Amino acid sequence: MKLNRIYPAGAAVLAPLAGHTDLPMRLSARRHGCRYAFTEMIDAGSLVFGNAKTMTLIRRDPSEDFLGIQLVGSDHDTLKKALAIINSLDFSVLDFNLGCPAPKVAKKGEGAAFAALRPEEAVRAFSVLTEHARIPVTVKMRILDENDPEPTVRFAKRLEDAGAAALTLHGRMMKMFYSGPVFHAVIRAVRENLSIPVVANGGALSAPLYRTLLAETSCENGMVARGALGNPWIFREIADADASPPTVEELAEEMEAHFRSIVDFYGEELALRISRKTLLEYLRGRGYPGELRASISFLNSADAFRTLMKAVRKGPSPRYWQTLEQNPSAERRLAPSPVS
Ligand SMILES: Cc1cc2nc3c(=O)[nH]c(=O)nc-3n(C[C@H](O)[C@H](O)[C@H](O)COP(=O)(O)O)c2cc1C
Using a 6 Å CB cutoff, which residues line ligand 1? Predict the structure, then answer.
């Protein structure tokens, strides 16, 4: 089955983010307007093997109206077996990862390395998925050249011909990992040469930057990745240009709600350790003192969490509010509230 339209125009998609887009983070994003989301990349071999952590990562909450699963792999047999499992589960789409530059993926010749070094084989592996999947199959890749759009367009068209229902394009080459400029013109060229939806990705770290990404690439949809970490409000700010950033109280309430989901999902014993990076993300760039952020690394009891939340509710340092005024395009903002 191939749907002509997976995402309505303008809808933002929450990216797969390894180590982050678990059920608690997705539920947090969904509380603030995110509808389209993905699991983090799932290694085809680990899925076939029934690895316990992998099984946790693919759990879907009944409230999740759209959830894509992202698969990384290359061996046809393993991909077919993984697909048999995915076909028996309930996902909205299956996305193939051809964009991950992480050494543990690259050294197996998978992810971005697969696309860059063995493009013909990558297309064949992708065809295995489109031929056997009972849900639409999409692909996420990176640009292959910063200056010349041709190699990226050519490869993307091969994936379209192989049955891709949509293609997400990260506008940075594999060698750049996650830094440096996003090459909008290459994304735009792919958008103009394909008939399937092209989802623009890279650098949408705030709602205004998301709008710039869509405007510069002529894409109707964009994928939000790091911009959503500790910042689920980015979805409401994308949907409504007049929406305010969170107040200090909203920040604290969401941190508590997210923490509660982590406890529910992973159990109390693991929750404190697992939640540290998440809680830190909420405070990043929001003017809270370094010592408070550092204290999160040692969070080891429910009491320590309550003490942390009291300090969060006191608000950021007064200097933060002045900095915000001087920098109206700051990526991570708070709305002034009575506590400030
Ligand atoms: C910590 C981290 C984990 C990521 N995990 C995945 C992943 O599992 N699958 C994937 O396709 N991309 C993954 N990515 C890439 C993002 O989905 C996205 O393409 C990239 O961060 C660029 O978007 P941004 O500039 O808006 O952050 C990851 C990125 C980061 C920073």
Answer: 15-19, 40-41, 70, 97, 99-100, 140, 170, 178, 201-204, 225-227
CB atoms within 10 A of CB 81: 17
Looking at the 3D structure of the chain, how many domains does it have? 2
The predicted-structure confidence for 270-328, as pLDDT tens digits, reads as follows: 999 999 999 999 999 999 999 999 999 999 999 999 999 999 999 999 999 999 989 88
Residue 170 CA, ligand 1 centroid: distance in Å: 9
pLDDT score at 340: 43
With cut-offs at 50, 70 and 90, classify the pLDDT of residue 207: very high
Specify whether 46 is located in the same domain as 137: yes
Verify that 230 and 95 share a domain, yes or no. Answer: yes
Summarize the confidence of residues 244-267 as an average pLDDT.
97
Look at the block and give the residue holding tokens 């949907």: 239
User: What CATH code is carried by the domain that includes residue 194?
Assistant: 3.20.20.70
Q: Which domain holds residue 224?
A: 12-239
Of the residues 239, 270, 290, which one is the last residue of a structural domain? 239
pLDDT per residue as tens digits for the range 105-152: 999 999 999 999 999 999 999 999 999 999 999 999 999 999 999 999
Looking at the fold, whether 223 and 289 belong to one and the same domain comes out as: no
Distance 100 CA to ligand 1 centre (A): 8
Same domain, residue pair 175 and 39 = yes
Atom of ligand 1 nearest to the CA of 72: 9
Residue pair 79/44 in contact (Cβ under 8 Å)? The answer is yes
Closest Cα to atom 23 of ligand 1: 202
| DSSP secondary structure, 207-253, as one string | HHHHHHHHHHHT-SEEEESGGGTT-TTHHHHHH-TTPPPPBHHHHHH
